[in-house]
Amino acid sequence: MEFTFLVFSSFSELFNPITLIYVVSGFLIGTIFAAIPGLTATLALALLLPLTYSLDITTALMACASIYMAGMCGGSITATTINIPGAPSSMMTALEGYPMQQRGQGAQALGHASLASMIGGGIGAILLIVLAPFVAQASLLVQTAGKFSLIAFALIVIVIAQRGRIVKAAMAACLGLMLATIGLDSMVPMARFTFGTEALTAGIDLMPVIIGTFAISELLIQARAVSEHNRLRREVLQAPAIRRRDFIPPLSSIREIGIWCYLKSSLIGYLVGTLPGAGGSMGSFLAYAEAVRTSRQPERFGKGNPQGIAAAESANNAVCGGALVPMLTFGIPGDPITAIVLGVLIINGIQPGPQLLADQAGLIAPMLASLLFSAIVLIPLTLFLIGPYFIRIVSIRKDMLYGAIALLAVVGSYVATYSVYQMGLTLALGVLAYYLRKHDYPVVTLLLGFILAPNLEEFLRRSLALSHGDPTIFLTNMDSLFFIVLTVIFVYFLAIKRPVQYNRDHSSTSGIAK
Asked: Which InterPro entries match (predicted)?
């Protein structure tokens, strides 16, 4: 209760005009980046990460929280209006939003998306505020061997969550682990894998990895899609103007959806968010599938049903609260954005873990207050005030947009480290990530592997030191054994049973066709 009271008292931080400006600006930037196809809130956060050096840590974390929430709801704008999700988490929204747009109900669809995002984001944030202290207390029971097994579980789940490309995800994660070993050994004062290069003695900084894998590679990917962008510009410029009052969904439609749909979808999103690597796209898909399963009229879905929008948007915004749980209590990011938020904490000398909410609750509470404020205030207010103009941001000339982003990325990587060598590494890692993405390697596993590698190695070596080199310590400690069993269960259901079932179904279908 003390932490909950501290969070709600932290709303006073928003009465500071400077802090409020950063929070609102962060939300607008996150929305704009999420609304433009090809750009994401992850990219926005990666570009703005160097600015956190000049900000107070509390203000920086509050701005990060507002960008996070905006990134989840902003993708519904283009998903509804031009059938191109601005963010992966809005793919299910496009299934229902675009048919409503074709019927002349696009603004109403955006209103449903905003309402669902507000409810889902608010419920997710409240669950995070109430439950995080209990999760932190429970995490104190996890010992050294258990911490290694937990991090290994997180990495494995992140890899197998990349359905259809598990092998490539594992290779990318291993590459991230390898990059993290470059530099001084954390336990023995000895340089590793520097190949005689003095500049690598300090290792590869987190900033070049984040900016390179997300910003530079994205620019190279988007540079190939000029014709598609020109088509989007023509569609947007020819689209009819949207009036503010059109955003307000009818009360009869909200009643038809039902409060239970919002609550159930929000809970699904929150629980999915607590799983490492799951993300908003999985949360929205599961909530949408559940809405279809329990509907009395499932045939209406896919044809412009507001209930589908409500389920998907409630879930993907509730993911925000869930994904911050493992990040704050264990230092394990739930998705790419929380991985960057983790980088903000580490850069500022804050180590996430069981003691974080007890020792530095005064820094974390304002961030959670900003997350809740963004959900229940900024989402509906932003859509009502400037929603009619959001769709027009897609018409920005691509050469000007990406030129400015490239400049920000390169300058930001230099300002973060004041090292020309690290800036060069940013460009090199960006090119590497571009070729990985071009061949369908998920770079998010590379980043998370890089972030989790130091703790993974530290707890492995500490555990073996405590047991005098006996690896059975991971089986004799109950907390470690629990996570090992959990890993086996996840691997079976996500990587073995499902592909086997798919192959059987595919074979039977082929046999019938023959």
From this structure: DUF112_TM
